[in-house]
């Protein structure tokens, strides 16, 4: 139960529930799919035989608004973007930052960061991915003319010049990022940010192909025009029907990219999603499962139902400006008397976790026990 000065909140740590065919891929590949929710490269355990046909058909929840990393903001778009484009860092199976295009990085006082790019990182047209590609991409991301939904994302990293650029007081070329050489990128921050590198797993920090954008303009993301640097390239895109990606032979880690083709379907209905899975039309459902089906399917096909942590907290708000909840004693009594486990396991019954704070327990650096001790100090009820 969460309580703050303006509202009374009961929280639930959100989880992602979906079902995936275990027969499709080896356990290691399945783990990669579930951890990142994308078809990334994975190590196949010794002695494991893969399915003869390595293709994946999955529901993506809805039609995407764009495939431009600087124009997207939804989960469906991010799922596909992570397959098509790779940033300096990616997330590993445990959700921790891992080398992507950058094979290593270092920093000076957490203020000047240097990223060393892989020499074998290439675009799908065969040209090398360079540090200048990231300079161009990040400048494009914060350019007011791009109108990126995540233009302000780099502000979290306090990159030098970002505030003034977004306010229109400085040109995008004043952004604190520069290419030392083709494979060395230097980023200067306005203040020390120890967690800066962790921000770079976000799709909006991925590189975009300057030549394709300048040649095709707004149509650069169409099949035949798009150039990508991730594990996959765009094969087909039929709006409101399907998006098909195929394995990119130029991807630096292509040898470990097991799945050859991924088809994304825009199925909005959760019930339809499950029905098409059970009929064999799709191999993987979207992030949510109908509450009335979760417990049933968990019993019928336990090896195919997966529940994974989701970086999100849901909570219920109660107006504390009106009686009886304007009395702190009533709010405290309700907080102490509410059984989160009943709400999670009996009411919602979708595999969620009880919330004892706003920050999910699997957030790197979260110190829930310490936070609770401070919260329970006199005057903090």
CATH class of the largest domain: Alpha Beta
* Radius of gyration over all CA atoms, rounded: 23 Å
- The coarse overall form would be globular
The rounded distance between the terminal residues' Cα atoms is: 12 Å
Look at the helices and sheets and give the structural class: alpha+beta
The CATH architecture designation of the largest domain is 3-Layer(aba) Sandwich
Low-confidence stretches: 1-14, 22-32
How would you spell out the order of helices and strands? EEHEHEEEEHHEEHEEEHHEHHEH
Task: Provide a quick synopsis of the model.
With 381 residues, the protein is α+β, with helices and mostly antiparallel strands. It has 3 domains: 2-14 and 308-375, Dipeptide-binding Protein, domain 3 (Roll), CATH 3.10.105.10; 21-70 and 72-84 and 229-284, D-Maltodextrin-Binding Protein, domain 2 (3-Layer(aba) Sandwich), CATH 3.40.190.10; 89-207, Dipeptide-binding Protein, Domain 1 (Dipeptide-binding Protein, domain 1), CATH 3.90.76.10. It has helices at 27-36, 75-84, 131-142, 162-166, 210-216, 270-278, 291-300, 328-337, 340-348, 368-375, and strands at residues 2-3, 7-19, 55-59, 89-91, 97-99, 102-108, 112-117, 177-181, 184-188, 232-238, 242-247, 261-265, 305-319, 353-354.
């Amino acid at each position: 139960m969460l309580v703050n000065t303006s509202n009374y909140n009961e929280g639930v740590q959100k989880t992602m529930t979906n079902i995936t065919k275990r027969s499709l891929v080896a356990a290691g590949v399945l783990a990669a799919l579930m951890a990142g929710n994308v078809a990334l490269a994975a190590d196949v355990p010794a002695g494991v035989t893969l399915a003869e046909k390595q293709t994946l058909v999955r529901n993506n929840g809805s039609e995407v608004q764009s495939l431009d990393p600087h124009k997207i903001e939804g989960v469906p778009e991010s799922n596909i973007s992570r397959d098509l484009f790779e940033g300096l860092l990616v997330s590993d199976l445990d959700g921790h930052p891992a080398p992507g295009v950058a094979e290593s990085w270092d920093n000076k006082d957490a203020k000047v960061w240097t990223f060393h790019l892989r020499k074998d990182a290439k675009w799908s047209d065969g040209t090398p991915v360079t540090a200048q590609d990231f300079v161009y991409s990040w400048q494009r991301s914060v350019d007011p003319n791009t109108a990126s939904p995540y233009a302000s994302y780099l502000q979290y990293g306090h990159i030098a010049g970002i505030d003034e650029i977004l306010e229109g007081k400085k040109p995008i070329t004043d952004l604190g990022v520069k290419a030392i050489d083709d494979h060395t990128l230097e980023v200067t921050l306005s203040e020390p940010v120890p967690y800066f590198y962790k921000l770079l797993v976000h799709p909006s920090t991925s590189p975009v192909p300057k030549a394709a954008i300048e040649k095709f303009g707004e149509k650069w993301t169409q099949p035949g025009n798009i150039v990508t640097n991730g594990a996959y390239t765009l094969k087909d895109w039929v709006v409101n029907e399907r998006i098909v990606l195929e394995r990119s032979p130029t991807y630096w880690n292509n040898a470990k990219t097991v799945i050859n083709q991924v088809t994304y379907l825009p199925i909005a209905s959760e019930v339809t999603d499950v029905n098409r899975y059970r009929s064999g039309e799709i191999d993987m459902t979207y992030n949510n499962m109908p509450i009335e089906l979760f417990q049933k399917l968990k019993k019928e096909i336990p090896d195919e139902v997966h529940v994974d942590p989701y970086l999100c907290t849901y909570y219920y708000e109660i107006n504390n400006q009106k009686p009886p909840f304007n009395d702190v004693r009533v709010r405290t009594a309700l907080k102490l008397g509410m059984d989160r486990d009943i709400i999670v396991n009996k009411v919602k019954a979708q595999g969620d976790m009880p919330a004892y704070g706003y920050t999910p327990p699997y957030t790197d650096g979260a110190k829930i026990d310490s936070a609770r001790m401070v919260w329970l100090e006199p005057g903090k009820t």
